[in-house]
Amino acid sequence: MFWLIPLIPGASAFILAVFGKWLPKKYVSWQACLSVFASFGISLVSFFGLLKVPPGSPPVIKTLFSWIQSGSFNADLSLQLDPLSSIMTLVVTGVGFLIHVYSVGYMAQDKGYKRYFTYLNLFTFAMLILVMGANLVLMFVGWEGVGLCSYLLIGFWFEKHSAANAGKKAFIVNRIGDAAFILGIFFIFLIVGSGDFRAITGALEGGAVTQGMATLIALLLFAGATGKSAQIPLYVWLPDAMEGPTPVSALIHAATMVTAGVYMVSRMNLLFTLSGVAGQVVGIVGALTAIFAATMALTQNDIKRVLAYSTISQIGYMFIGCGVGAYAAGMFHLFTHAFFKSLLFLAAGSVMHALSGELDMRKMGGLRKYLPLTYPTFLVGAIAIAGVPFLSGFFSKDAILTHAYAQGQYFIWALGLMGAVLTAFYMFRLVFLTFFGQERLDPHAKEHLHESPRVMTVPLVVLAFFSIVAGYVGLPVVLGKKANLFSRFLDPVIHPGHEAHLNISAEWLLILISVAVALCGIYIAYVFYLKSPRTPHRIVARFPMLYKLLYNKYYVDEIYNAAIVRPLVNGSRVVYDNFDLKVIDGTIDGTAAATGSAGKLLSLFQSGLIKDYGLVLLLGVVVFLGYLLF
Amino acid sequence: MIPVSYFFGLSIVLFVLGIIAFFIKRDLITMFMAIEVMLNAANLAFIALAKAAGSPAGQVIVFFIITVAAAEAAVGLAIILLVFRQKKSIKAEDMRLLKG
Amino acid sequence: MGIFLFSLLAILCVGGVLGLILSRNQAHSALFLVLAFASLGGLFGLLDAPFIAAVQIIIYAGAIMVLFIFVIMMINLEQGIAPERKRWTLGLSAVLAVFLLIELGLAVHGTLGALGRTGGESIGDPKELGRLLFTDYLYPFEITSVLIIAALVGAIVLVKKKEKE
Fold first, then answer.
1. Nearest residue on chain C to A609, judged by CA atoms?
2. Chain B contacts of C79, Cβ < 8 Å?
3. Tell me: domain C1-79, CATH 1.20.120.1200, correct?
């Protein structure tokens, strides 16, 4: 039954793609939302079914049919349900459903309404294939499928030049990572002889893979993850991806697709644990990304871009978790992040909606009295991500940092802690600039100022609720060994590395530090943007270089442009001018010209008279018969 | 009893007469009739061979040839009629669109 | 008796084709051809093929030639068309035709020699022919029917006048 989970949105996408033109708008909304809701229902049932399964039993696998069978290479179209994929399906369908509903309101006036829901359903389908595929090949299909949908949805308003370019950028940057990813898959096939997750686990446990090989494969796979999950050095596409509709940013570029890398690393956790080095690389890349992206978020004025950098930073945290061997903690942060980040995006979308599409925070301010539902929900999201106790973000971020510390990765831990201060700061900068202070609205925008319709605010409230409570499934270990339900649920999938334990007082201390750091960040933001709004200007005046560096995002885009894009384009042009135009076109034109003139020459033999042809035919018969006879 | 070779001789003569008719005539319809003559010469050879070999298979084949010839005649005449409508002529030398 | 009938029919047949060649009028040509085909049907009868003989007379001399005559009527040329005047085409075709005549004669001679006998038993029972058509030759038979349908539709579509004309 669980294999229906991806198929329902897939079928819905198919129907919308083929018949959408003739279907009424209202029906399209209902079908798109209900198909995802049906998937969510089945996911829930499967999840509770999974809870009853005794520990140690193998994962449920349903083989739909044998897809590729070529010599020793074979891949089945088979889906699997285990704790890891179960959590992912819950997140994808649950958050996905709310975002579908929200989109009904958000996209109501758009002329691409049906196309939008087709893509959104298709994305849900691809994402579910990604998380439920029982082998690497099928996972790669989903991986590419979500990439395609991401491209389609970033460039959804393709008549806008910047949107089309952003879509292209996302696609191309992801290609780089995917090339490495597929190389990793090839290596696995080479060594294990199968892409099946069970077979890979068996081979790794049986010692068939050397440590060096494991490192190579793990790094290749992780390179793929840096593309999809927007980590250093391939994160550059995600901020631009904000050109897409806001619900898309929430679903694809915050809650689900960009976390696919984390899911993949957790799925292959045995490989990363075996390698050791690769795990270290994952942790360091994650930590660097976490802090790097957080600093870039400090100076952005575009509300969605701040959230985009924040997403990059938070995924960095997830990779820290995976890198230090705390895969469950990484997955836990993925789980909670899906709620509060999509909440923040959707609330930001609601703000945009209210302000007729305004994105610049400098033109907002004082909105809290106009948006009585958006404001508190956004605030909940901000508190959750900042790491204030008793909300979900606190538990997951703390679990990651505690594990990092416990594994002796003090450098990573320190970076993570700094990132936490910055996170709290830029999130509250966002809150204060948008909802507090004096109004800096366009007079035109102010005329149309209104709270969003029900269909948009209800998902916000639901997400806010989960942003608060989702953390309670993974309480810190200090509160008792059995407190972390989330981690225990994942136990069958996560193969434990060497566990390091802290004593209770150290752990409480770490928690206190996290709390202090978060509150500290919020307080600084309060001072900067509410108490004495002149402070930021003074600091900018004091460190103009630093500000410029941050404001221009470390010039990474420019560097990539100069170092990679420009030489590539110029080189291609040289090849095009010299090789394509002259050699290839010359050869083809020459062939065509030669054929043409030969035809012209031979056509002189054609008189057009039936009798001449008959004569030649007769001659042929006579000669042939003569040959047969004599 | 007539020797089968007589029939073969007649078949050959008919066939060659058909060829000659094809080259002498200048209008498409009669040229088409000449082709029918050749077809019938072949039919005669088949029937004679069936007799000579003592097997009815040759007759079956002639039966098929006749049916196919009927179809061919219908389509061929339709084409001739169409050509005549466009060109107002059925002279073979007036149709030389294939000239290179 | 047999020889006499054969000679008569053969002369009628060859004469019909010669008439086709010599006549300038298309309608006359067609009628000569009917004569040739009808006598050919008689020859089939002499060769123990009564069924094919009947088919030959009904379909060939009847249906197909009626088709020809209809088309001739629709085209309705005032005067006949003179025979081919291009010398070298005629000459070459005549030479080739003679060559072909000789070659075919040699070929038949060789074949009959190899066959070694001149038949004798009765083979043309229509019952036997029908059985063969619906057993061994069932698929060709069915395919032929499809072919005829296609030709019928094709001919109609080709000749149909377009409505705007």
1. C89
2. none
3. yes
